[in-house]
Amino acid sequence: MNKKLDAFHLKVIAIVAMLLNHIGSGFKLYEYSDQLFFFTEFIGKLTFPIMAYLLVEGFHYTRNIKKYATRLAFFWIISIYPFHMLFYPDHPFSATELVNNIFFTLLMGLILITLYDKTENTAEHILLVIGFSFATVMSDWNLIGVLIIFGFYRIQNPNFKKIIPPVYAAGFLFLLLLIAYLISPSSVPWYELVSVLGILGTIPLLLHYNGQRGYSPNWVKWGFYLFYPLHMVILIIIRGML
């Protein structure tokens, strides 16, 4: 297989998918077009698995895990308010109403695999996975996000590790929504049920990843982090103007 995608290409795909997804959700496109909203949701499902895979790559290659974790924590904190205002503008900004953003989920995943790497006891391993999964209950990509990260870390086969986590993530979310749909069809629109299959689109992208960092000057490295809170602020301003 001719692998032409490097980490830079994957990051660009991830942030474009994220932008489309956040436009769809932030501007409530489902009120205007189910098909258009489905498109933004389907494409948006590419974002987290790509970020999760690159997080694990960063874990293996970084020289300073503490700096890596601190960077994630910093952008989690500065993104808390923009994330809340974009997706939960009608809810009070308080600890009881707070839903954490994607950087919190990534941070929990990084801490999990760091601690897992330093322990050998099976019982401790199980407790770590369960504990850090439930730590993201009130977070973007709750529960399953940390398990995607763990799968990318734990599975050793270079091809299987790119296939299995997206498959079980898509399967879990689809089954969850299917059960909700069967119980109350009106509570789960068709596009929510089908859009989770967009996660599977990550598989060919990761299989074409060549393991190279690609174009990565400092402004690009920090720009990808800064894009997250900045694009949400811009979308909030545009929405307010409209």
TrEMBL record:
Q: Where are the transmembrane segments?
A: 12-30, 36-56, 68-86, 98-116, 128-153, 165-183, 190-207, 219-238
Domain of life, per UniProt, equals: Bacteria
Quote the InterPro entries the UniProt record gives.
TraX
The reply to whether Transmembrane figures as a keyword in the UniProt entry is yes
Q: Which UniProt keywords apply?
A: Membrane, Transmembrane, Transmembrane helix
The molecule here is called Fimbrial assembly protein fimC
| Species per Swiss-Prot/TrEMBL record | Enterococcus ureilyticus
